[in-house]
Amino acid sequence: MRSFFIIALVGLAIYGGLQSLEKMGSESSGHAPAGFLTSYASAVARAKTQGKPVVVIFSASWCPPCRTMREQVYPSNEVAPYKDKFVWAYLDVDQPNNRSAAAQYGVRGIPHYEFLNAKGESVGQVVGGTDAGSFAAVLSSMLTKAH
Q1: Model-wide pTM > 0.90
Q2: pLDDT in tens for each of the 147 residues of the chain?
Q3: Catalytic residue chosen out of the listed positions 37, 54, 56, 63
Q4: Which DSSP state fits 78?
Q5: Which architecture does CATH list for 40-146?
Q6: Residue 66 among the catalytic residues
Q7: Which is the catalytic residue, given 54, 66, 93, 136?
């Protein structure tokens, strides 16, 4: 009888863990933050039209640092002054239509940030999550390089 309860508890724990993973995936399904484009080609085209540099963010819904960046860093007060200075693209590396852009920039780890000038030429890249202040400093540096 005791082994039945242990097996039942283990089964419930596994089921609960799977449900949590499923819920986590659905809450963070890789959707781009508000105002971010989800097409590399659209971002480059808009940059050329508006004369702005581009922040291309390669990400995935299952990536913990990517989630932290999306939930805490991009909407932060430190990053807010840079929202209108760049065209922002949020590309899920698990989506087939983003694979060629990821390959073009040699994406091996995420989050991966590729910074482009208004002509669509790379001016720098950064890999990994960070805090809002550090990310704002990177944006400032890349804005200078892009112009």
Answers
A1: no
A2: 555 444 433 343 333 433 333 333 333 344 889 899 999 999 999 999 999 999 999 999 999 999 999 999 999 999 999 999 999 999 999 999 999 999 999 999 999 999 999 999 999 999 999 999 999 999 999 999 998
A3: 63
A4: T
A5: 3-Layer(aba) Sandwich (3.40)
A6: yes
A7: 66
Helix (H) or strand (E) holding 48: helix 40-50
Which tokens hold the place of 110? 């995420």
Is the dihedral angle over the CA atoms 124, 54, 140, 68 positive or is it negative? negative
Contact 33, 86 (CB under 8 A): no
* Domain residue ranges of the chain, discontinuous segments joined by +: 1-28, 40-146
Q: Dihedrals φ, ψ of 78, to 5°? A: -70, -35
Q: How far is CA 126 from CA 12, 16, 113, 129, 137, in A?
A: 42, 36, 5, 9, 12
**Catalytic residue check, 29:** no
Would you state the torsion angle of the CA atoms of residues 102, 106, 107, 112, taken in this order, to the nearest 10 degrees?
Answer: -100
